[in-house]
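Extended Data, panel c. Modelled sequence:
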Amino acid sequence: MLEPLRQGLPPLDPAAVSSAASCALPARYEAVREARVFTRRTLDQWDVGDRFDDICLVVSELVTNALRHALPGDAGRCQDQTSPVRLHLMRWTERLVCAVRDPSHDTPVARDSEDFSAESGRGLFLVDSFSDSWGWHPLAGTLNGKVVWALFRLQPAE
């Protein structure tokens, strides 16, 4: 159920993207709030209907995971690092993809946790539950790291 799709995004025509936005996020935990604000502002303009809250929740989880698990050492607490994490939002007519790029090559792994009162460890379960599909792929060429993405189907405009 939670096995991420390593093959990358499902086929989507890049020429058909109706809207796209991205932002660089600093290596500090406050960046999760910055990602939420950026996402809310962007989605307000795009009219994504009833998927608004699902998308905002998934963005928060993906950015949190990138900061917590994909940065070396105490990078999540550093104030003066460059922006190693980047959030991308891409909208097609009936689909939206949020993608988070980070410098790690490690595969995203859902934790096995029987402790339902735990305050962390359920991020990928939430991503799996609230998106229509998700996955990851390593970056190539001059880009280092990976992209973890989530896809949302949108209702066609009436």
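The chain has three helices and five strands. This feature is highlighted in the accompanying rendering.
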